[in-house]
Amino acid sequence: MTPAEPRTFAVPQERKVVTALPGPNSLALQARRVASVSRGAGTLANIYMERGAGAILEDVDGNRLIDLGCGIGVTTIGHAHPAVAAAVAEQAHKLTHTLFTVTPYENYVKVAEKLAEITPGDFEKHSILVNSGAEAVENAAKIARRFTGRRALVVLDHAFHGRTNMTMAMTYRPWPEREGMGPFPGEIYSVPISYPFRDGLTGEEAAERTIDYIETHIGPREVAAFFAEPIQGDGGIVIPAPGYFARIAEYCRDNGIVFVADEIQAGIARTGAWYSIEHHGVVPDLVTSAKGIAGGMPLAAVTGRAEIMDAVQPGGIGGTFGGNPVSTAAALAVFDLIEREDLIGEAQRVERAIVDRFGGWTSKYDVVGEVRGKGAMFGVELVLPGTRTPNPALLKHVLKYATEHGVIPLDAGSWDSVLRLLPSVVISEALLDDAAGVLEEAIESFQGVGEAGITPTS
Ligand SMILES: Cc1ncc(COP(=O)(O)O)c(C=O)c1O
């Protein structure tokens, strides 16, 4: 593997704001959208995009914005990568659909072979390919229930697993994901996580708290699967303390519980490893992949121990579009790029750059409680000055200011108070520096309710 050659991008890698944001063309599209699109598909910034390359998005008014979100962690390899575009075009001219469960094709098998190679664990693994992250999580739940013959699913506080009926029920926050949309399926239990910034517990202590909850509220022999994001995404880039998952995985093993790592946001090179559970030194039984797996094409997967994956009867899992020829062609191009251009190493480079540029914010700003993350997946926990109390008003201000100045970060956290950074792993240090400057202006310009505005403490 060799580091990427300096690349030329179809869109220059620079921030350039030429109109007010949103610009006039975006505003015109917004008016049409309000008249035609459900309000339920809420938007972070009503800036309509025309094209993208690397870490830059260009909007319909010619503004160039630094993308710190990748459409929530999808375009990890950069926008509109030419290798993915070529693979998609070539496949689209050959074959777009047969339905794998009617008449199969090689791409699907190749993706399953690759997933068996890159997911943790030195044992025989099988996969099922589906369309979305939520569908992958639902299938993992079905498979684990079929394998164990048990009903209960355990999920962690602050988890996000999707928006289908089952995955809504597996998701922590009532608002906006769940409210008014029940009834939900039963036998789903949310248990305390390890959240070092908030609970101050060691990994072992937090694991004992989790286990005690299972023992006293559910009963381990009822539990089919324990679902965990090894690094929580929407929950606020929560990274359980060292030792937490090792103890949980041991408990699952001892009690016949299927341990599922939901890697939909953190997997596929984003955190400087193929899968983020590797940072915890744990081998899960099942892994869900999606988002970054196919460079923006819809594809998701459940991969895991062959005996668990094969517990389901033929026809018990699947779907019309799952693992379609074009999305799988894109995924094969993504896997190839990650290896050929050492994008795992690039994610580690991004981690060093973020730590260098953003790490000092906790001493510079009394409203920054913690800057934490791995690879190109970071969270900045915003708090009321000098406290650990969440500061959602500041996050709202930062997002508005940033998007109006050509930077697109994301929100996260159960209290809407974590600034989430999921840039492409090909983002340059110069772009990160420029984006950090805009975010600093945003923090410093906050005139919060009941506060005198934020002054840097150094
Ligand atoms: C960890 C995790 N699981 C599941 C999902 C649901 O994926 P999708 O939106 O593709 O259904 C997401 C989406 O953000 C996620 O981050």
From TrEMBL:
It comes from the Bacteria. Its EC number is 2.6.1.19, 2.6.1.22. GO terms for molecular function: (S)-3-amino-2-methylpropionate transaminase activity; 4-aminobutyrate:2-oxoglutarate transaminase activity; identical protein binding; pyridoxal phosphate binding. Pfam families: Aminotran_3. Pathway: Amino-acid degradation; 4-aminobutanoate degradation. Its cofactor is pyridoxal 5'-phosphate. InterPro entries: Aminotrans_3, Aminotrans_3_PPA_site, Class-III_PLP-dep_AT, PyrdxlP-dep_Trfase, PyrdxlP-dep_Trfase_major, PyrdxlP-dep_Trfase_small. Keywords: Aminotransferase, Pyridoxal phosphate, Transferase. CDD domains: OAT_like. It is an enzyme of class 2 (transferase). It catalyses: (S)-3-amino-2-methylpropanoate + 2-oxoglutarate = 2-methyl-3-oxopropanoate + L-glutamate; 4-aminobutanoate + 2-oxoglutarate = succinate semialdehyde + L-glutamate. Coiled coil: none annotated. Belongs to the class-III pyridoxal-phosphate-dependent aminotransferase family. This is (S)-3-amino-2-methylpropionate transaminase.
